[in-house]
Structures are given as structure tokens and as C-alpha cells.
Predict the structure.
Amino acid sequence: MTSTSKDTLFVLIKSLSKSEKRQFKLYVGRLGVNTDAKFLALFNLLDKMKAYNEKQILESGIVKKAQLSNLKAHLYKQILVSLRLNPVNQSIRVQIREQLDFATILYQKGLYKQSLKLLEKAKSMAIENEEKNVAYEIVELEKIIETQYITRSIPDRADELALQAKELSLQNVMTSKLSNLSLQLYSMMLKVGYVRNDADLQKVKDYFDSHLPKYRLDELGFREKLWLYKAHLWYSFLTQDFLGAFKYSSKWVELFYEHKEMIYLNPVFYLKGNHYLLESLFLIKYNSLFKDTLNRLEETVSNSKFPKNDNLASLTFIYINSNKLNHHFMEGNFEGGLYLVNVVEYGIKKHKDKIDEHHVMLLYYKIACLYFGVGDNKNCIAYLKRIINNKNLKMREDLMCFSRVLSLVAHYEAGMDYHLEVQLKNTYKFLLKMNDLHAVQKEMIKFLRNLGEIYPTDLKAEFQKLYDELKKYEDHPYEKRAFLYLDILSWLESHLQNRPVSQIIKEKSLQAIR
């Protein structure tokens, strides 16, 4: 039996708003013969179901088993057609495609002049709105029509179209090369996180240098610049050049503010650019600009002009709440961030069909850090277990590794000695398997493993010894990444000074932030 999460038709129907369902029924009922159509009966049945149940569908008598697959495919297509007609989904991109479709129909009917008129209008819209792929398609269709219907309204029409096709082709090739580079670097980031050694660094550097096409910035349009900045951003993140990440995420975001109409035409890229800018500001502890950027982002997405759809709602939820958590970490205000736990849990449940597991696990890790900061180690462990026990998570190996290390520390703090021994063995095996056992982790595991043999009177001296050892790695090009995931040094200082870890972090943040 097909599961709820895998049945695409059921998921699509459950994603529809009340107005979209009403519009679909009006769309189906525009012809009287459709009123009792089988696909409408199937739609109504699926709409009422809380979970997908194929047996219930077959028992309803609407359709036989042999016909169910075809009926579902037909219903799926009809829903998409209805959604396409919805004014909410009538973006510039859809409008241009619609004009191209109309022009193609007119061409096929032999109405060449009418087709060319529509194509000229669609091409202007496409070029104006940086939709150069579809603009190239339009020019290619214009060339086909011109070979069959010679217009005399514009001299040298053939030369003009050939030149346009060449320019658009070159621009599309540049965009393709830059977007391919950006995608591959992003894939590396998801797979392993930051570079871990000289070999990783050289591999990333060689790949970037060999795949970055030659360009002149003044010749690039909005779209080409966007992909260029994205490629540089991922390179900066991978190599832990956080000032570089700040530089290119700033360029990315400012590109949108220089072309404000693009915010509403490409809202996903606008949201992502702001998210990476906020992440880089968090990493370099630039608090004042972080707050300004987050406020400006929230103001923009709440503006009535900003597009509204399910995808944007999900992305907005992830990016704004993830960065609100980061803001509390930056200021050491863990108590003040606890209200976000319910907000995030509700949002994950609401957007569960549209958020990938990587982002869910990242939010869980941040919540675990929040609980660790306030000393609630049991809740910290509970959230880390969701990550550690997730067998489907194939991305972000470094997140898995540091979840296990933080779990070790939380088990120690919670006094769960038996569990600590089991955790030590499992974590050590996992880190070896991932080839991610670095100096900071080795020292942490060695310290925790020997805890049972340390007399209480010697504990403070051992904490000091571990602190002195780890302090050496705070600015190490590869080892410092451990402190990005878990502030071990502040935890050790809290034991040495007998003060809450949140108080230590808060004092540090006041000294470090700008």
C-alpha cells in the first residue's frame, strides 16, 4: 500500500488551501458533464481522508483497481491546470510561458503575423525580467517563423535575430557554468561541511579554480552576477573564510536591493541570500548588522507585495527562526530563546511535507544547544537523539559527528554515567568510521573516558588541563570548526569558575560582538 508521505496526489490535495479547492471544483464544473466525473469523486474522497488508504478508495466503488493509476494521474493533471489558472500563481515567468504557448498555437494555425506580435511582446518581458532561457526559446521560434513568413516591417531581420540568439546563448552558457559550479560546491558543503585538512582544502581550491569561467563583471547581468556570488559564497563557507562569506552574501543581497523588482520575481533567492548573510554575520559576531538584516528581512516578507505561497512560507519559517535562534546564541541569551522551541516544533509539523530532513535536523541541533545553554541536559539529549537515531540522514556528516560529541558532554552533565560509557564507545566508532576524529574530539573523548578514575579533589585541575589543551586549537584553520558547533571552552570555563555556561557565553558575546 502506498504511504501518505509517498503518494504524490494525496500530498498535493492536502497542500491545497480552501480557496484553491473551491476554485478546482468551479474549474471542473465549468461544463455540466464533469459534475459527476470519476476524478472529482476521487478528489472529494481523498480530501476527506486523514491518511491515504487505497483499500478505502477501491471499496468506495469509484474506480476499479486496474483503472486507479490512470484516474489518479488524470486528477493530478487537472489539479495542476486549475492551480495554473489561479491568479496567485500568475507570476511573470508563468505569463511569459503562457504568451509563448499562445504564439505557438497561432503559428501552428498559420497565423504568422499574430504569432510574431505575441512573441515580440513575450521576448521583451523575458529580457526585462532576466528570463534569458525562455527569451532564447522565443528567438528560436521567431527564426523558424521568419523562414516561412518574410516580414518587411524591420530591415535586416535575419541579422537582428541571429545576433540576439548569439548574445542570449553566450549569457545562458555563462549562467550554466556558474550555476553548475555553485551547485557542486553546495553539494560538497552538505556532504562533509567545512574542509577538514589540507587535502580537503586543495581539492576544493583546485575544483573552484578549474571550473570558474573567465568573465568581466561589467558585462554580467543580474542573473549571472547572482550565480557568481553564490559560487564564491559556497567556496568561502567550505574553506571557513567567513569574512569572504560575509562579502559575497552581502553582494548577493545588495544585488536584490539594487533591482527591487527581482525580490518579488525571485523571492526564493532573495530569502536564501539573506539567510546566508545572517549566517556569516553570526560567524563573525557582527551583532548590530545581524539585527538590522533580520529586521529588514522580516519587514520585506511581511509586505503585501511579497509573493505568498507554500514554498515561500516554509522557507521563511526555516530562515527566520533559525536565525532568531542564532541571535540568542550570539548574545548568550539562552533563556530568552526557549519560546522558539514551541514555534519551531509547530512550524516543522505544519510544513513537514515541504522541509527536507537536513534542515529539520539542523533546527533540532540548535534547540539542543539552547537547552544545553540553560542547563537542561535531558531535553538537550532528547533532541540530539532525534539526529543520532536518524538513519535516513545522508547529508552533513559534521552535524552528525558534533551531535554525538555534544551528547557525550550532556550525558556527563546529567550524571548519566552508565549511558556515558555506552555513548563513548559508540561515538568513538562513529568518528573513526566518518574519518572525522580530530584533535579537539580526541581530547574531549580522552577526558570523558578517564573521568571515572579522577578523584573529586583533582577534577578542577583536570578541567584546567583540558582547557589549556583545547585553547591551542581555537584559531587553528581546521580544528576551530569544532567550536562553531559546540562552545567547549565556555563549558570548561563554567566548571573552572563555578558559574553557569550561559553567563560565560553572554560575557564573551558582549566583548566580541560589534
Observations:
- The mean pLDDT is 85.
